[in-house]
Design brief:
alpha+beta, Jelly Rolls
Length: 191
């Protein structure tokens, strides 16, 4: 059975790869369809896969001591994601990974991923770009949390990634923007 794999201009631009190199890399990934609400990783488990989102989105989140989930990252289409600390160090994760909506993913195992890095300089360089992008996204989120109020964070997301607002439930969106659901509803109603 042939793998049904598609990429986007975003993937190709990030990678700076030719079609043959992309085909070789993606040949190591396996297609995976998941329904909304399915956990790909539980807190305390080790992250064994890196995901590329083709359709839908996944999120990483923590559950605080009061039992409230705090979304740390949302992986939209044409992006890579996992519980990075757990994946890199192969240690139990403090995060969960969940399909925030019905999603079509490409998954590569930790073992195959790092074996591939050892044998292919192109893939190693691509991995560095993925890490840089993940770091940049997290840095921007931290900066927004520290310098913007709730309304400004919502407006920034609306300007930079309006599709995410449509994809996520109010509960998940509020968690991602670090505000209460009631605050988000109030901000949305004043648009």
């Amino acid at each position: 059975m042939t793998k049904k794999i598609k990429t986007s201009p975003h993937f190709n631009a990030l990678a700076e790869l030719n079609n043959e190199q992309i085909k070789k890399i993606l040949g190591h990934f396996n297609p995976l369809k998941v329904k909304r609400g399915v956990n790909l990783l539980q807190e305390g488990s080790v992250s064994k896969h890196l995901y590329y989102v083709q359709v839908g989105c996944i999120r990483t989140f923590f559950i605080d001591k009061e039992g409230v989930d705090k979304t740390s990252y949302v992986v939209a289409p044409d992006n890579f994601g996992t519980a990075w600390s757990s994946f890199i160090f192969q240690q139990p994760s403090a995060e969960f990974i969940e399909a925030a909506e019905n999603s079509e993913l490409l998954a590569i195992s930790y073992k195959e991923f790092f074996n591939f890095i050892q044998t292919d300089l192109v893939w190693k360089n691509f991995y560095l770009k993925i890490l840089e992008l993940a770091y940049l996204n997290q840095s921007r989120k931290i900066e927004a949390l520290m310098t913007l109020d709730a309304k400004q964070r919502y407006q920034k997301l609306m300007k930079g990634n309006p599709a995410l607002i449509q994809k996520l439930s109010n509960k998940t969106l509020a968690s991602f923007l670090d505000m209460r659901e009631e605050t988000l509803s109030r901000i949305k109603s004043k648009k």
